[in-house]
Structure formats: C-alpha cells, structure tokens
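Why predict the complex rather than its parts? Because the way molecules touch one another can change local conformation, and only a joint prediction can capture that. The input here totals 934 residues.
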Amino acid sequence: MHPFLEPIVAKFPEAVITAEQDPVRGDLWLQVKADCWRVLAKFLHDDSRLALDHITDICSADYPDDQDRFEVIYQLLSLSHGTRLRIKARVSEEESEIETISDIWRGANFLEREVYDLMGIRFIGHPDLRRILMPDDYEEGHPLRKDFPAEGRGWRSRFDFLPKLDEPVGEWSEAEVPDDQRHQFMADDRPGDKKRTTEMLLNMGPQHPSTHGVLRVVLELDGERVSKAMPDLGYLHRGVEKLAEGLTYMQVLPHTDRLDYVCAMTNNYAYVRAVEKLIGMTVPERAEYVRTIIAEVQRIVGHLFWLGTQALDIGAMTVFFWTFREREVLLDLFEKLCGARLTLNYYRIGGVDADLTPEIISTLREFFKTFPDHIREYDTLLQKNRIWLARTKGVAVISGEDAINFGLTGPVLRGSGVAYDIRKLEPYGVYDRVEWEVPLGKDGDTYDRYWVRMEEMWQSVRIIEQCLDQLPEGPILAVDAQVIPPPKPEVMRDMQSLIHHFIIFTQGFKPPKGETYCGTEVPKGELGFFLISDGSSRPYRLKIRSPSFIHMGAFDYMARGYLISDICTIFGTYDIVMGECDR
Amino acid sequence: MDTVIRLGLTLSQIGAVMVAVLLTVALLTLLERKVLGWMQDRMGPMEVGPYGVLQPVADGLKLFFKEDIIPAGANKFMFSMAPILSLVPALIGFAVIPFGPDWTVDVGGVDFKPFVITDINIGVLYILAFASIGAYGIILGGWSSNSKYSLLGGLRSAAQLISYELNVGLSIVGVLLLSSSLSLVTITNAQAGGFWNWYFFAWGSFPQAIAFVVFIISSVAETNRTPFDLPEAESELVAGFFTEYSGMRFAFFFLAEYGNMILVSCVATVLFFGGWHAPVEILQGPESLHWLTGMFWFTFKVYGFLFLFFWIRATLPRLRYDQLMRFGWKVLLPIALGNIVLTSIFAYIFP
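Output of the joint prediction:
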C-alpha cells in the first residue's frame, strides 16, 4: 500500500473498502462507505499527514446494473504534499444521498449542486441544493443518468417554461419581480434587520455588455454596495459530458475546442493528455516540444485577450484594441499551422496534427522581437496609472487559504501567493527541461492577479524561446496502429494500414478498462479531464473540471461588500469564459 | 421699429450659432471616432463616403428614422421631457460666449454686437446656472425609464454633478477676482495683448494654471466623459441613464452631451486662454481682419480642448463611484479653495 494511504486505513479500517494505487497510471484512490464519508473527509482535510486542502473536482458516475447504482467521485489534492487522491463512494438508487462536504471545502458547494443537477444525488446538509446548469424548473430528470437519452427528452418547443412563438406576449405586470418571488435566488433570508429591508435586486445578465457571455448574476444591492451576489449559470449548457458518452475518444476532441473557445489549443492539450494517460501512450520528443510551444503561444493569446477585456471592463478601451493587434498576429500563425483561427483542433492523441515549419518558427521569433515593446506599451497605459491602481488594488481580495478552500486554480490562486502550477508540480510536455519561474502575488487582489498574468506572458516567452532553441528533429505523431490512424500514403498502399484506418474511423480504439484524472494548466487555471473507460471505444463517463465554473463558486464570497463597478472587475479578473463554465 | 430690428438681428444670430454648434456636434461624432481609431491603431469609420466623412449624416438619418420606444411602466411625460430638459441648457449657454472681437455696429439705430448674442453682466453665473439644470434631464431620464440600470445611472449623475459643479464654480473664482467682472466679454478683453496676459499664465499676478486644471477635470466630470462617465458606464450600467432611449430622444441626449463638451471648451477658452485673442499680437493681423483671425483662434483653441477630451477618453480607465466622490471633495475642492485664497492675496498686493 502507498504510504500516503496508510494513516487513513489505520484510522478508519471499517470505512475504507479499498485503498489502492493504480499500477499503470499511478493514481491513488479509495473506495469508502458513503455513510462514513463526512467524518473521513474532515480527517482528510485536517490531518497534517494528508492535508488534502484543495478540492479539485466532484464527479458522479451511473452504473445502472449495480446494486448501489451511483458513485460519487471526489478528486482531492494536497498542495503541501503534492499528492492527488481520488475517493469514491457508492450510493443506491433508492436513497441516493450522501452527506455534504461543502462546509469543509467551500468550493464543493457548486460542485455538489452540479452533481445533484445532472445525476440526482442529494447532498444532506447542503445549504443551497438547487439545480445549477439546467433550468430551475426542469422536470425531465437528471441528464447524466444512463437511462436519460443522449438526444434529450422531448423537443425544445414542448417545454412549458419556454415562451412559444405563436403565443401572444404576456401582460406586463406592475411589479417587476413579485414580492413572493423576490428572494427565490437567495440561498437564505438573513435574519430581519429592520433598517435593511430595502435592498434592491439587480439582475445583471444574461444579456449585459460585460458579463463575458451569457452569465447572469443576481445582485442584492444596498445603495451601490453589493450585499449578496448569486451567479445563475447554465445559459450556455450544451451537455458536452453527455454528448461525449456517445462519441469515440477521437470524436470528442473537436468538442473540447468549444469549451474555452478563447484558448482552444490548451483544451485540446488537456484532453489528449488525459486520453494518453488512460491508454498509457508516450509521445515523440519533437511532438512534446511542439505541444509545449503551441500551448504557451496559446497562453499568451489567452492572456492578451484577458488583458484587453479586463481593461475594457474597467473602462480603458485602448488597451483592448492594442492587445487584439498582437493577438491577431498569433492567430494568423495558428491559421498557418492548422488552418483554423479559433476552434483549432490541432492536437492529436499521440502527437500533433501538423509540424512547425521553418516559416512559422521565424514568424514566431520575429514576433518575440517586438512583443516586449508591446507589453511595455500596455504598461504605459496601465502599470502606473493611478486610476488603474485604484480600481484594482484592494479589490476582490481573497487570501491564499480561502482561495485553496474554494478550489481556485491558475492565476487567480497564484495571485494570492499560493505556488500551485501543474507545470511545476506534475511537469508534462517539456516544462521540466526549460528554465522558468512561477510568478506569485502577495495580497490576492485584482492588481496581483493582473501582475501575475503579465509576468506569465514573459515566462511564456522564455519557455517558447528555449523550446525553439532545443527543438529536436523527429516524428510528430506516435506510431501505434491500434490507436493512431496510419499516414494517408500508407493507407493507400498497404492493406494492413487500410484495415487499421478503417477500424479506427468506424469503431474507434478501445482503451483498457480503468479510470484516470489528468489536470493541465491552461491560461485560466486547472482544466482537468476525468475519464472512466469500460473497455469500449466510447468513454463511459467524461467529466470536465473547468476552472471558470469553480471560480464562479467563490464569486459571492469575493463580491460581497464591493460596488457594482467592482463586479465587472471581478468578471474580468476571473477571466471566465462561459462556454467552459457551463459546458 | 427698434424692437423689430433687434429681434431680427438676435434671432439670426441665434440661428447662426445653433447651426454652427450643431454642425460642430456632427463633426465631433466623426472626429471622435477617427481620433480614437488612430490612437487605437485602427481606421475608424471608413464605409460611408470617402474616408467615412458622411458617417454623421448616416447616423443622423438612422436616429431620425429609428422606432421611438417608450418602455412599459415608464412615466411617459417625464420620459419625453427629460431629453429636452438636458438639451436646452446645453445649447442655451452659448448665448453669452464671445466668439470674436468686441465690436459694436450700428444697424438702423440699434447697437449690435455681432460676435456675442447677448453680453449680460452675469455671464459666468448664467452658464453655471443652466449647466445645473441640465442635470435634471439626466436624473429624470434615469428615473422615469422604469429600469434599474437607468435609475442607478441617474442617481450617480445627480451626486456627480452636484460635487463637481462646486469645483467648476470655485475654480472660476480666481479668474473673476483678477478680472473683477462676471461678463465673459469683459474677461476676454482683459486678456488682450499676448499669451502672457491670458489668465492661465497671468503675468504680473497669480497664474490660474492650477485653477485651469481643476476646471478641466471638473468639466470632464460635468460632461460625463471618461474617466468620469459613471452615469453611462457601458461596462457596468449598459448605457446608464439613457439605456431605454432610442431614436430622436436618444439623439437629444447625444446632442446634449456633445453640446456640453463644446460649451465647456468655449468657457475654458474664454476664461483661461484669452478667448479670440491670438497668442502674440502679430498673429492677430490688421484691425480690419480681427473678426477673421479672432474666429480662427477661438475655434482653434476650442478644438484643442475637444481633442483633449478625446485623448483622455482613449487613455484612461473609469473611476469608481466612491473614488470619484473622494477625488471631487477631498482633492479638487481644497485645491480650488487654496487657489482662491492665493489669488485673493496676490490680487490685493498687486491690484
């Protein structure tokens, strides 16, 4: 048994059913009894030998033929030990409930709601167990259950809650929100403070110029001060996880482009890494370099996009156009590389689709000659601008401890001074072969997060330049006839290749039975894919751990007490993209 | 007969000024987008006419033919009144601005000043008074729309205008002390002779440079421009107080905003930069051409200030509501007061 698991088994011998380490992939996991879960969870969080302080994800799986039908799967991470642990608990269909852990890890709040919404498992003691991605009054069941058809139930036009086109528009009512419904978006009514009965309810979104997509936040305002902020998600929910269950592993790849459509490359990367970990595949060296280079270029593109929109949210419009000017150069580069500009679909399981040509490399080097000047140009507008400092310093402060507790990742977590970067903790690609640093903030305010992202752009430049210098020759795609389609000329000539090609494209490859979690550092944080394979050519369950969704869980905590203007700043500082948040 | 001639002359003067102001507004909408475009490394409007010069015409036509929507639950009377209430004060202020030399011509026995509609002896107070009435248009527009975003925009503007009008008023006091007059014509005449006589430099007395800075900052706030555009902060309040307006009513608010911009630029020119006077006497040309060079220098200075407005908009982010208030009351107000004290002392010692 892995030494990390020993204290748990010693302390809870009857709660733990299995404690194992995946021999191939190295994942640690526990199977525990559902009714002991809460006590165990507290121990996992508090005990210094484990210190599993960061909640990465909560996921659920449905096994209709088993006695205990549902499985709730928790992904935990110990930042001090750098160890991940997966805990699984089974619940039966009749009493599909398990105790909540949302008071131990506050980030679990939204995650548990998602599990409840999509799988119908109730969490006892959860403060606000409502649907989160599906509409509040959705009555067609829980979509991720296996008996729920992938094409959905009924047609959109038959749902009662949607207005019909041929119906006359309803009468306008005198009160915008009827009094009895006024607080339905609120988790709880605070005890009656007589002076404070006149908060205004402001509905921000889903159509609003600065909510970064179709995000809706219901704000309870005391004057202009926010006393409560309730995010209402799901306007862009497309059921990618459900769709993936009906697709082969290769066919899922284009769907990942549409998650965080601003940074499609890194989404591809996160997904192919998860699949490669599942099937245990190694990637040729040149492909690793190319992947790292392109992922870092994408990080620069993502951060440029973030800088532009963050500045625009705060009212500085020029930065937006300037950053888009540089972004354009890099998008042109992507176009040369793979033919697409936004939804790129460039990474392949086992490598990448196209090689870096000398032309692309020289464009890239040319770009880096002028890029530092451009960053300095943004700095002239922002770095020392008193208004910018006043709008970002001390706004939306979150301490490192809280940030971990909420499960935040990426620049949002690093802005609070927590050195968690998957590229350092679990190096992938060639990040361990180049020199770079993880920039850290101190105060955990918007300015620090701004600074961290600006520094990350510099670091990305460093990484790419070293990678370009070291770039070896070689193939860009692994050779594995069972998994990777053979090159086209061979398919035309060679019978065996033709058969492989035919099988891969008609049936897909079949990974071994198993499950794995793989997190990748994307510009917004940790994008994780959790895959369960039942040995067939389609994923049995695919869970996407999207950073934007988890960050929205901390929104209320970070927004309280600030002004309406700061709400826009917080949207910007999270760098949320709703395609990824709602999936 | 005198009355008829006077009426005719004044009406034609008003007509000329209105046409000039409205044409300038049309030009400004194009200029602003062009200037912002150049600063932001793009072209600005290019589609309508050569280099997009007909864009204002297209915009005007679009606004004119757009459906006029009054939201359900809006107070219809107030909703219709608000744009007028904000446009009229913006235009009426031009009545006391001297655009050229202080000439008096005799037309049919009537004394007529061709370059100022009316030279009343409380010109500065008149402008300040009407500027504050403009705030009603914004507040009522925000309140009557029955929209929370509009309401918030209206309330913000109420607080903002009250705080910054005070600073505008106080920053002018220094100039009034030096010129001992409230008439804009007298103030302009007192700055003749060269740029060192302009109250911005005020050779031999206390320069009003600090007052000018306070005045410009406060006027940017008065006209709801970036970085003080909180009442219409588009990333927070969609469009602020005119979120629910469309068509001509929207155009009225738009005209009012740009009219105000031109007005404060004119006031700044007159009070601090010598009005129609050239920086040095030679550039003013012969006496008979003063009307031409005077108008030129006046327009030149006004467009300089307008460019400054655009420049600020391209450069700065927006302030937050509480920061705006703090800045107005805790920074600008003491500076303006200090300026009054110092100017008074200087004016007493060097009369």
